[in-house]
Specification:
- The protein has 265 residues and is α/β, with parallel strands linked by helices.
- The protein has helices at 5-11, 26-33, 51-61, 77-85, 99-109, 124-128, 132-139, 149-153, 155-159, 171-177, 189-205, 216-225, 235-253, and strands at residues 16-21, 39-43, 67-71, 90-93, 141-146, 166-169, 208-213, 229-232.
- The protein has one domain (5-245): Phosphoenolpyruvate-binding domains (TIM Barrel), CATH 3.20.20.60.
- The protein has an eight-stranded parallel beta barrel, surrounded by eight helices.
- α3 (51-61) links the parallel β2 and β3 (67-71).
- It starts with a helix and ends in a 12-residue tail after the last helix.
């Protein structure tokens, strides 16, 4: 079965660097894949990516060795299993707040006896290889999103779920439930304390820790803290940032407009 580069990074003792795709375009996803990430997530929760476009984006990513993953819209086995059958090598599931919710999520990611995933890897076997069903349970990564105060209160119960590989912190939603403004890269002491609490819990239970960030500087800070998986912005944010910088540079350095000619023509 084709290797999972995120697992390879973890086995080598380094953090995986992840990119994020929310623009509904196979070419955009293919372009992102050529930047050199370890993995790329196609986001089906927020944005305008539907299932057929998700598959096309996974196909675009598959032109490289970058590992393709998907954030599903919700903790629904139908979404999870179809994303896996489409070729996702990892699932990020939002709003996991309890042990029972985590068990439901992880079970949908695994074939029996480890779970209840239905057999039908239509594209996944083309991407992964002929031994896909034999090795999928050990290759696919299940990320439970920790993004509420409730989830932090239930952290040990969630992290002790058999088969859970990793958690993925959603800082914006977590900020809201903490009474802070939404957004990424929070320096608030309460946020940093919760991020450390999540990391300590992951270490206790042998679970990897991931987080979404808004800058390379904050991502490096999280890696130094001990996070094993960091996402830096996303395709739309990168486009917005680069485009704004180019336009600003042109506005600042643009020569004065030439005087309009006068007189008869």
């Amino acid at each position: 079965m084709r290797t999972n580069r995120v697992r390879d990074a973890w086995a080598a003792g380094r953090a995986a660097i992840n990119g994020w795709c929310g623009i509904p375009s196979s070419f955009s996803a293919e372009l992102m894949a050529h930047f050199g990430w370890d993995s790329l997530v196609v986001d089906m929760q927020h944005g305008v990516v539907d299932y057929q476009m998700m598959v096309s984006m996974l196909q675009g990513i598959s032109t490289t060795e970058v590992t393709p993953m998907v954030r599903v819209p919700w903790n629904d086995p139908a979404y999870i299993m179809k994303a896996l059958d489409g070729g996702a090598y990892g699932i990020i599931c939002p709003m996991i707040n309890s042990r029972s919710e985590c068990e439901k999520f992880v079970g949908a990611c695994r074939y029996a006896p480890a779970g209840y995933r239905s057999s039908g890897p239509i594209r996944a076997a083309l991407y992964g290889g002929a031994d896909y069903q034999e090795k999928a349970n050990d290759t696919i990564i299940a990320f439970a999103m920790i993004e509420t105060v409730e989830a932090i209160d239930n952290l040990d119960e969630i992290l002790s779920t058999p088969g859970l590989d990793a958690v993925y912190v959603g800082p914006s939603d977590l900020s809201i439930t903490m009474g802070l403004p939404p957004g990424l890269d929070k320096a608030d002491e309460r946020m940093i304390a919760n991020l450390k609490k999540i990391l300590d819990g992951c270490r206790r239970h042998g679970v990897k820790a991931g987080i979404h960030t808004g800058s390379p500087a904050y991502a490096k800070r999280m890696i130094e803290m001990g996070y094993n998986f960091t996402t830096i912005m996303g395709d739309a944010a990168l486009l917005r940032m680069a485009g704004s910088q180019v336009v600003q540079q042109m506005r600042e350095g643009a020569p004065a407009a030439a005087a309009k000619p006068t007189g008869p023509y």
